[in-house]
Amino acid sequence: LGRGHQPALYASRGGAARRLIRRLTHRDTNSSIDDVGAPFCPDANAPKDDSDPLDLAKKDLKDLDDVQRAARNTITVAKAFRKVAGVPTAKHPWPKWGEPLAEGCFPVNFEANVDDSVNPDFIGRVAAVAMQDFKTHAAKHAKLLNAPNVKLTEGVLEEFAKGSFRGFRNVYKAQFDVEKEQQAKKNASNSRKQSRRRTRYDNLISVVGEYRDTYGTDPTELLSVDFLSDDGSGPEDGAEETTLEWKRRMAVRAGLTGPAATDARLTKTKFFENIAPNWRSPALTQILRRLHELWWSKLTIKAVLGMGHYVRDTGRLTDKAPYSTPFDMGINRTWYETHKDLTGYAHWLKGWFTFGNPSGF
């Protein structure tokens, strides 16, 4: 090939357009901090410290403070990644490299490294789309994005997009490998749980005003995506119980009887089983439940009918600790004393019972 020419495959998948987009949106991975763009901040006057913006994406989670950990749990580019690639949900397979793409979709090459082939251009586009989404929903993320050491730039979002690339590449490869497919399904389940926690966090935050009016205290500081329960949409991993057997059990707990409890109906019915975290205190659990009840009371009948059945107090528990440090009143002290010196817990729990409590609690 002569200089300046690309293979036919690359050209057919939009090579020229990708090169243009690269010039417009992509920054090399070795760019200095000054090159990654000014941080997006909902409050233009919010002060920022002199930490490296890329710390948020590149540092180990254990080396971040609680605010940065919360930001990392909140910032996600997976939706933008799928949008740019034209793969809207986990039910849609990733196109094999070389297959034609739908109009408007950008090629991603999971058979190459993240910094090779068309991937840098793709990553740059994902970052730009994700940034626009954060700007559109700025109010929802204002508290975190205004923090001094949380600096959301397209350079940071590119690093998150690279992480998504590696995760989605495993899914892509799993489409052709049974063992990897099983691991990919487990990862997808964890992602769905995290997504449901984010949605619930948004729901609870939306009724903080009503909670304050009803109970006289503001629970905002007690809320974190990290502190919310997971929901299981099926039996526990490794359980002998089948999905239908699990749904039958959930139907009993939800009070479903008659035609609504037939196997034919249950196969189409959504259930979510609360997985209660053992580390969390009854006091914090009560606050979260009160917030949930306030939010639930505002739903229309149509919205309620579309929610599925949420089942609590089944005895499904987890000892997984949150990445962020809770306030003292949110910690189950008995659980803490049992786990604080155990391998796998000692590092994460070393800052517990040092934060005190917010005003009013």
From TrEMBL:
It comes from Polyporus arcularius HHB13444. Residues 32-54 are annotated as: Disordered. It comes from the Eukaryota. This is Uncharacterized protein.
